[in-house]
Write a structure and sequence with these properties.
AAA family ATPase, Helicase, Ruva Protein, domain 3, about 325 residues, 13 helices, five-stranded parallel sheet, nucleotide-binding, two-stranded antiparallel ribbon, ATP binding, alpha/beta, Rossmann fold, ATP-binding, ATP hydrolysis activity
């Protein structure tokens, strides 16, 4: 496997972002989180109204990385075989062959994921967690690396299904995509009416695998890990952390996957920024994206207009970060 250090990883990430930004205007936060998810080998749930370049971003990124890309438009009539594949009878030869579905790609875009029924969600759950699918008793591994980017429309609920909590918890982050600024939208319109720009591949799957391997080498001090665990524990047992007033506003807190996701995402963000060590600031910056979809606000909180983001902000404000962390193992 190709080896990279922190400086080389940051330079490679910068080249990838530069190429994507030749096509996608603005959305800096979203683009950075997409790269964090890729490097941390986690799936990403994206929520935003139609027309905010969610599909274009994933497609452009796949071309930039020379990776295979598939898009599945989730609809209520979708069945599991439409995702994972099925057995097909060949009349000429008189036997069955396996026809693999569109999940066999490096980057899978699950568009409007909450429009598919429970059976389809269960099929996607296996491939998200195990990186494999089972068809007629045979196991087939998906390509590596494998990342699911799923989108949701927050303003249209007709014909949608609530995602199972077990599936939501398997998304590394949930990112909210907002409307562009007027000056950005001006550039978007200008690019739309001009000749399309050809995307150049600046990296390959081997280089992405090297980034993912290097992420594991980013140093995470025990104090930083303890900080991530305290943040997550404060969503489960607020009174233990001096946040007793939050207890009636939270039905369920985040699972241990959230603690792991916070540290892994912080390592990936540190690598993107040219460091071989993670800081508490990395954890705090990523906490809203990692925690918002894992919290279940109570009816009391919802009635008062208190969102999961507001609860995360309160936890961040009240749980102290470590004053200093080591930047390398002693």
């Amino acid at each position: 496997m190709q080896q990279v250090n922190a400086a080389e990883a940051a330079a490679l990430a910068e080249r990838i972002l530069y190429e994507v930004k030749r096509i996608v205007v603005g959305q800096d936060h979203f683009l950075e989180r997409v790269l964090v998810a890729l490097i941390a080998q986690g799936h990403l749930l994206v929520e935003g109204v139609p027309g905010l370049a969610k599909t274009l971003t994933v497609k452009t990124l796949a071309a930039t990385l020379r990776g295979s890309y598939r898009r599945i438009q989730f609809t209520p009539d979708l069945v599991p075989a439409d995702l994972v594949g099925t057995r097909v009878f060949k009349q000429r030869s008189g036997d069955f062959t396996t026809q693999l579905g569109p999940v066999f790609a490096n980057l899978l875009l699950a568009d409007e994921i909450n429009r598919a029924p429970a059976k389809v969600q269960s099929a996607l759950l296996e491939v998200m967690q195990e990186r494999q699918v089972t068809i007629a008793g045979e196991t087939h591994a998906v390509p590596r690396p494998f990342i699911v980017m799923a989108t949701q429309n927050p303003i249209e609920n007709e014909g949608t299904y609530a995602l199972p909590e077990a599936q939501v918890d398997r998304f590394l982050m949930k990112v909210l995509v907002d409307y562009p600024q007027p000056e950005e939208e001006m550039v978007i319109v200008q690019r739309a009416i001009a000749e399309p720009v050809a995307v150049q591949a600046v990296a390959g799957m081997e280089q992405l695998a090297a980034l993912q391997h290097q992420r594991r080498e980013v140093y995470a001090d025990p104090g930083l890990i303890q900080y991530a665990v305290r943040l997550v524990d404060a969503t489960r047992r607020p009174a233990r952390h001096g946040l007793a007033e939050l207890a009636p506003q939270l039905d369920f807190g985040a699972s241990p996957r959230a603690s792991i996701a916070l540290v892994e995402s912080a390592q990936a963000l540190a690598l993107l920024r040219g460091r071989d060590y993670a800081l508490p600031e990395d954890v705090a910056e990523l906490a809203p994206d990692v925690l918002r979809h894992r919290l279940v606000p109570s009816y009391e909180a919802l009635a008062a207009g208190i969102t999961a983001d507001a609860l995360v902000a309160e936890v961040l404000a009240r749980v102290p970060a470590p004053e200093a962390v080591l930047r390398e193992a002693r």
